[in-house]
Amino acid sequence: MAMHFHDRREAGQLLAQELIFLKGKKDVIVLGIPRGGVVVAAEVARAIGAPLDVYITRKIGAPYNPELAIGAIASSGDVVLDEGLIGSLGVSPEYVQDETERQRREIERRLRKYRGNRSAQELKGKTVLLVDDGIATGATTLAAIRALEKERPAELILAVPVGPPDAVARLREEVDRLVCLDTPRLFWAVGTFYEVFDQTSDEEVVRLLQESRQRLEVTD
After folding, report:
1. What is the pLDDT of residue 1?
2. What is the DSSP code string of 53-98?
3. In 3D, which of 191, 61, 52, 199 has the Cα closest to residue 120?
4. What CATH number is associated with residue 100?
5. Where in the sequence is the domain holding 102, given as residue range(s)?
6. pTM summary value
């Protein structure tokens, strides 16, 4: 029987219980993948007393089917493409380039909105905990992992409430540690494992980041 979560906050609280070994550990940074992943990540960051930041990856969707990922781009500019799928669909290099550029601009827009003038956290030598609200194909998550590895963290941990067994197994090989609460064999979409899976707004992401900063300022 697959697990079901009431909402992203509950999923984050349950995930935090599995990550409590990080509480009090120095140099831990929690990165939420916007937008929904930030809600989950905020609960984890609060429970372990770590700073919260965002790490943005955007899906590069197929022509006429934007939900089908033919690749992904991370906020660092790193691009991961599924060359096999691109070839089988006959997607032109021009389309891939145009769509990649469009998603790059969207990442820049979101970063300005979420961070304002603040720079990104220094990740080199840190324990980086990457959190999302679930994994579907794993394409955008893989793009984030590959890009984060270039930042040379001491340890890279991926934590998600739910994901299909094959995608979770594939991603497990890419990180130092993977924590996933459930890997149901029948997997349609991440949202089917939540009772409430509404759209997270940019404003909520900004609020959660501000709350995290204020909380850490009080405890410092």
Report:
1. 67
2. EE--EEEEEETTEEEEEEEEEETTS-EEE-HHHHHHHT--HHHHHH
3. 52
4. 3.30.1310.20
5. 59-113
6. 0.90
